[in-house]
Amino acid sequence: PDRNAECVKRAISLMEERFAEKLTLDDLARACGLSRSEFCRTFRRFTGRTPFEYLQHLRVRRSLALLADGGLSVTEVAARTGFAGASYFAEVFRRFFRVSPTEYRKKNKE
Q: pLDDT tens digit string along 57-67?
């Protein structure tokens, strides 16, 4: 169990450091010294999320400050937080916060 907990911590640290980059399941599993399937099972057991869900949520959380600041377009925020495009970013953002990035920005200016 301790080895597995350390593995998950290592994977989360890697995600935190490189959230804006393209991270693959192979990258994360390799960092832990596990197979992809074992890594996924272990990660989900400890976090309640798949590695991909966790990374998406991390990216969206990191986008909040950039959106609130207002200095970047939604497309630029998407790119800086690791999303392939603004429309996909908006889709994922809406799934977590029930509003679009633009609506979030407007609400935080008021």
A: 999 999 999 99
